[in-house]
Amino acid sequence: MASLFSKLSAFARSPQGRRITEQVKHVARDPRNKAKAQQLLRKLRKR
């Protein structure tokens, strides 16, 4: 399992990983997407 984490952290440090991270942060700032995510979390917690 450590190798999986090290691969993920290496990807996150790569230029492509940083670009994807910024895209995710940008999408997460959108209020509509944030509301959708919170609704999904509430639905999952009910189970």
Question: What is Rg?
Answer: 15 Å
Structural class of the helices, strands and pairings?
A: mainly alpha
Number of strands: 0
Oligomer: single chain
What proportion of the residues is helical, as a percent range?
A: over 70%
Helical element count? Answer: 3
Following the backbone from N to C, one meets helices and strands in this order, namely HHH
Q: Please indicate the percent range of residues in DSSP E strands (runs of 2 or more).
A: under 5%
What is the general shape? Answer: flat
Distance between the termini: 28 Å
Largest sheet: none
Give the overall average pLDDT. Answer: 91
Enumerate the spans where pLDDT stays under 50 for 5 or more consecutive residues: none
Region (Disordered): 13-47
Biased composition (Basic and acidic residues): 19-33
